[in-house]
Every structure is written in C-alpha cells, then in structure tokens.
Design brief:
The chain is mostly helical. The protein has ten helices and no strands. Helix 5 crosses helix 7, helix 5 crosses helix 10 and helix 7 packs across helix 8.
Length: 184
C-alpha cells in the first residue's frame, strides 16, 4: 500500500483494511506509521542477520553481505522504504532515529568484525582500517541503492559493494571464497 500510494499519503486506516483488522487492532501493535515502517525494516534486518549470522567472520561474512545485497534487488519496496525512512530519521526527534542509529551500529559492528578477521587471516590489505572501510562500504551501499531506485546507469548494488571490497582485499572476494572453501 505504501509503495502504491507513497509513505506520506498512505494511512494506517488503509493498512488495517488491507490487513483485514480494525484500525484499533493495528494501533495496538503499531502506535503510529513510523513504528509500522520500522517493524518492516526490523523484519528485513532479521533476514540479513540470519544470512550473515551463519557465516564465520571474515571473507565468509563479507560474501554473505554481498549476497544479501544481491537478493535485496528482488525486494525494491523494502529498499525504497529503507531509503525514505533512513533519510527522514536523521532528525534526532524523528521516531525512527533511535532504530536507525542502532541499525547502523549493528551493521558496522558486523562489518568491522569481519574485516578485522579478514585482515588477521591475511585476506585484507594490512594498511586497511576496518572501521573506515565499513563506514565507506555502507555509504556506498546506501548511495547505490538510491541510484538503483532512480534507475541511474543500471547500477548493481551488490556488484558495487563487491568491487569496493575487492579494492581492499589482497585478492578478489570470489577468489578468496573459493580458496577458503577448498581448504575445508
């Protein structure tokens, strides 16, 4: 519904009607529209957590992140929702501000842990700073998502993130994943 009518135009009354429940029932679970939208994003994050949580830190998790970006291309509504809500939530008083801050800290922690493990395993260039790389990777990811939504230059978010990682790894990510898999 929000994808069809926009996030500003869509109402909780319409969401409740589409879900087949009363508006009061919807409000019992989600006190406002931002809470509902945040719940959708949290559910999306749970899927990402399952994907990356199964992988051991290092190139496996980096590969899982790229694969998650690849699979997200099949969910343009979620990407659009994230782009809109993350921009709106930059205001400290916005109801989704705390959620976005927690989310960015969570994904940064995952990336830093994996980049640090990759460095310790000799897969990341020794002069690379995992925190700086994680921050840059997610800035690139978010920017590519917006370009993808706008259909600018037919970008692939996953390919862009993978190429960024390849610039900082000692070998391309796909090659490292094959090598690590062959060692098992």
């Amino acid at each position: 519904m929000f994808g069809a009518q926009g996030y500003e135009s869509g109402s909780l009354r319409e969401v409740a009607a589409l879900a087949g429940i009363s508006q009061a029932g919807l409000l019992h679970h989600f006190p406002n529209k931002v809470a509902l939208l945040s719940a959708v994003l949290e559910r999306r994050d749970e899927g990402a957590s399952e994907e990356t949580g199964r992988a051991e830190p290092g190139v496996h998790t980096l590969g899982a992140l790229v694969e998650y970006a690849r699979q997200s291309a099949f969910k343009p509504g979620e990407i659009e929702l994230f782009a809109v809500l993350s921009a709106e939530a930059t205001r400290p008083e916005h109801p989704a501000n705390a959620y976005m801050r927690r989310r960015y800290q969570w994904i940064t922690d995952i990336a830093v842990e994996s980049l640090s493990a990759a460095r310790d395993q000799g897969h990341l260039r020794p002069d690379a700073d995992p925190l700086r790389l994680a921050s840059q990777m997610f800035a690139l990811w978010d920017g590519l998502q917006i370009q993808w939504l706008l259909k600018v230059n037919d970008v692939s978010v996953a390919d862009g993130v993978e190429h960024f990682l390849d610039l900082h790894l000692v070998k391309p990510l796909r090659e490292l994943l094959r090598e690590v898999q062959a060692q098992r």
